[in-house]
Write a structure and sequence with these properties.
About 35% of the residues lie in helices and about 20% in strands. The chain is of the alpha/beta class. It folds into three domains: about 5-50 and about 195-270, HAD superfamily/HAD-like (Rossmann fold); about 80-190, 3-Layer(aba) Sandwich (Rossmann fold); about 275-335, GMP Synthetase, Chain A, domain 3. The strands form five sheets. Strands 5-4-1-13-14-15-16 form a seven-stranded mixed β-sheet, with helices on both faces. Strands 7-6-8-9-12 form a five-stranded parallel β-sheet, sandwiched between helices.
């Protein structure tokens, strides 16, 4: 960070939603204050979500109802992007089999296409997005349509979605079921980690820099990297320190913080990896038994040092304590052996 605050280095902040701004229907602690503060300082924000079950206006209303300032034009959804893609490729009025929520059907209609529900209606494309009501019958119709030659577009391939009960099956799990039945993958995947949502958002920053804030390495962070943007991983959702240490190069974030307050608090965020396996009073050694953390300092500093050692050595664990201060820090990070 060139400034005292991470946010000062960027012209636009792009937020993921589930696991970053809210969990189910409750804002994550710090989210309301953070976004309100960004708006109060006149800083542009955008929201990019793989959730295809809501339209942009619905998402904005949901956020506003939670106390998070949001306007429909600030929201980018995979449903809208996927419908726009098909609208550009297909003739007006072309039938499209929709596997997903009513919001996805509405996006298809707005794109000038005709949403249909069965393969008997001769769809020229299948669009698949998350919907809690999607079941076997929907996947069966999609399988018949794709085998008949329909283009198959998935809004996203998130394996899971966060919930108060832990990760639950996401659209990617249902896409995988259909892919197993068909013996092939979708023709197009529009949502993260594909870079389109973030690239679209970044164009709004003109010549300024954009930072993507997300909770998932496999969608938010990889998508930011593929779009050539910096990223901040917040540890309020799906990905944790264990997954971070094992992350391949394409899924490694620029920064890590506990939550969104890291955008403003220099003590609440750290750049990863540190330049070496020594950072902020911590030292990490790599041996035949894994990683060993010694020293003392901030917990996020320990995480930065561990990332440097793990990513350089391709040894992500186990992680052992080498000093009295290391044991509680490893427990806080969920890395205790």
């Amino acid at each position: 960070m060139s400034g005292d605050r991470l946010v000062d280095d960027y012209a636009l902040v792009v937020f993921d939603l589930d696991g970053v701004i809210y969990l189910i229907d409750e804002p994550i602690p710090g989210a309301v204050d953070t976004v309100t503060r960004l708006h109060g300082e006149g800083r542009p924000v955008a929201y990019a979500t793989n959730n295809a079950s809501r339209r942009a206006a619905d998402v904005a209303d949901l956020l506003t109802g939670m106390g998070v300032p949001a306007r429909p034009e600030e929201v980018l959804t995979s449903a809208a992007a996927a419908a726009e893609l098909l609208g550009e490729r297909l003739p007006s009025g072309a039938p499209v089999l929709v596997v997903g929520a009513d919001a996805l059907r509405a996006e298809i209609s707005e794109a000038g296409l005709k949403p249909v529900a069965t393969a008997d209606e001769a769809p020229v494309a299948v669009i698949q997005g998350y919907g809690p009501q999607v079941g076997w019958a929907d996947l069966a119709e999609a399988a018949v349509a794709v085998r008949a030659g329909a283009i198959w577009v998935a809004t996203n391939t998130d394996r899971t979605l966060p919930s108060g009960r832990g990760p639950l099956p996401g659209n990617g799990a249902l896409v995988a079921a259909l892919a197993t039945a068909l013996g092939r993958n979708p023709d197009e995947v529009v949502g993260k980690p594909a870079p389109e949502l973030f690239a679209t958002a970044a164009r709004r920053a003109d010549s300024g820099r954009t930072v993507v804030v997300g909770d998932r390495l496999d969608t938010d962070i990889e998508g930011a990297n593929r779009a050539g943007l910096d990223s901040l991983l917040v540890l309020t959702g799906v990905s944790d320190a264990v997954e971070l240490l094992a992350a391949p190069a394409e899924r490694r974030p620029t920064y890590v913080s506990w939550d969104l307050t890291g955008l403003f608090d220099p003590e609440g965020v750290v750049r990863v990896p540190a330049s070496a396996a020594e950072y902020g009073g911590w030292q990490v050694t790599v041996g035949t038994e894994g990683l060993r953390l010694s020293g003392s300092g901030r917990t996020l500093g320990a995480l930065a040092a561990l990332c440097a050692a793990a990513w350089h050595s391709d040894r992500s664990g186990p992680v052992r304590s080498g000093s009295p201060a290391a044991a509680p820090v490893l427990a806080q990070l969920g890395l205790a052996s």
